[in-house]
Amino acid sequence: MAYRYRFTVFTPTYNRAHFLPRLYESLKLQRERNFEWLIVDDGSTDETAALVEQWQQENLLPLRYVWQRNAGKSKAFNRGVQEARGELFLAIDSDDALVPESLAIFSKHWDAILALPPNDSARFSGVTGLCQDQFGNLYGDRFPRDVIDSDINEIRYRFKTKGEKKGFTRTDIHKETPFPELANNRFVPESIVWNAIGRNYKTRFVNEVVRVYWSHHEERLTTSGVSAASAPGHALWHREILNTNLKYFRYSPASLAKSSVHYTRFSLLAGESFASQWSHLRGAGARALWMGAAPLGWLIYQKDRRAVVGH
Question: What is the pTM of this model?
Answer without folding.
Answer: 0.92
